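User: Predict the full complex structure for these chains.
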Amino acid sequence: MSLTHVTEARPRLSGPARAAATPPALRLLSGLAPLTGAEFELVRRCALRSERVQTGAVLHPGGDKIVPRLILAGWACRVRELPDGRRQILGFLLPGDAIGLGACARPLDRAPVVALTRVDSADASSLAVIVGEGRSAHQGLARAVETAAELELERLLNQLVRLGRQSAYERTAAWLLETRARFARAGLVENDAFPLPITQETLGEALGLSVVHVNRTLQQLRREGLLELRTGKARLPDPDRLAEVAGA
Amino acid sequence: MSLTHVTEARPRLSGPARAAATPPALRLLSGLAPLTGAEFELVRRCALRSERVQTGAVLHPGGDKIVPRLILAGWACRVRELPDGRRQILGFLLPGDAIGLGACARPLDRAPVVALTRVDSADASSLAVIVGEGRSAHQGLARAVETAAELELERLLNQLVRLGRQSAYERTAAWLLETRARFARAGLVENDAFPLPITQETLGEALGLSVVHVNRTLQQLRREGLLELRTGKARLPDPDRLAEVAGA
DNA sequence: CGACTTCTTGAACCGAGTCAAGAAGGGTGG
DNA sequence: CCACCCTTCTTGACTCGGTTCAAGAAGTCG
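Assistant: Here is the predicted structure of the four-chain assembly.
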């Protein structure tokens, strides 16, 4: 990339060197774009004042008034519900993900965000201000936020294709791979295993399937040696074959 | 809105006064945010050098090299295909829509764009430059582009919910209403009728349904007096009832 | 340990897909 | 302007993936 010299001009911590002292949540953010030490410090400071909420808590009620928040631990999701009570999950928020940053994703941020597990999160208003004012000293942060938004949109498109054109089996396989990839990016995958603390009911609301069918689909994946589930953790023993199943 | 005085400081043409001399395509764009006369002129000038392509032509091959284009007439769509040939349409592009403007939507712009009818479109590089440099004299244009991107994302989310949670009947109803609303925004709906020049096959690729089922669903809507189709035009005789059917 | 949530399995049902074949349009060349 | 061809629409019959209903087993948390 053509910005190499800029990177060199301002020394940046990154990778393993910093990872040791870094809570998992911050690894994701800093993996999206190179951050200066100062930027990283800003994020870490905002993460200090974290709040814990229980499963089911509403992290963001939806609508236009959005308090930016950074997820530090646990899973949350963006939800849309139909008048008759059916729910569709638009996407999952994992440690390191944020809401209310990036201006681009406003329609997404209009959907309520609900905690799927116990969730630790912090007010990220300070970061929103910094990103918003667009000062060049905080380029890295702005770029990280933008990249995060792009990745989320990308996942949204993938999800659209899956819901429109793929079978339950394919969908589930693809979703598992995608989710693993998200954790992998943050360096949180250990021998193909990653956290999966959500109920099958919830997974169904994301994949557009009934609980019963999610269960059967997961069983099938297990039977075929493509998936192992132990309390709150998933392992994908054969990612390549799973990718074939997922198609695309 | 708090910007009223700014609007007054720079006289802007808008609404019927300008509509008379305005090709349909440009109405949509100028309906998204107030444009100065100069901005409007820029758009109009870029629309002068339009190119016509036939049904099936590729307006944008996909990937990262994007030549910004403004659709002036006809329908196009963004497409994703699976390795086995199944296709999912991510969204339709109507006159007044553009690709390759707004930086936010990059993942969307990575999907190929294909003409569904004869399409007139113009190179919009000049606009992309103007929007990109972010000068305050062209605020209006930048805002219009941003609004367009937000609306598109909003539609994407709606579509996601439909594919995940709604029946063929509901989906189709909702899509018809949404499409009518798009034309309505550009002032192109005459007594509830709007252009609908695509095949049922294509509609199926958007709604995640087989041709056969699209056909049956449309029949049902017609039987129930919710839809009238005449060559290339759709009419929704009872939008309220249709909205109830669409749910949400 | 007890209460509640989550997972699992079976059986019946149904929305939507597939296959097939005929009818209706719509564009093109003679 | 008509005849022809090819695309698009339409309909019927059958199949199948996924839902629903129901009920029991296994976890999980206080």
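Residues 139-165 of chain B form the longest helix (27 residues).
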